[in-house]
Amino acid sequence: MDLLKIKDQALSFMKPAKSEVLKWFRGQYEIDLKSDSSPVTIADRNAEEILRKNITKHFPEHGIIGEEFGNHNANAEWVWTIDPVDGTRSFIRGLPLFASMIALLHKGEPVLGVIELPALGETAWAVKGKGAFLNGKPLKVSRQKKLKGAFIAVADWYCFKQQKHISLFNALNKEAGIVRTYPDAFGHLMAICGTADVMVDPLAKIWDYAPCKVLAQEAGGKFANFTGNRASIEEGTAIVGNANIVKEVRKIFSKKATK
Question: With CB atoms counted within 10 Å of each terminal CB, which end of the chain scores lower, N or C?
Answer without folding.
Answer: C
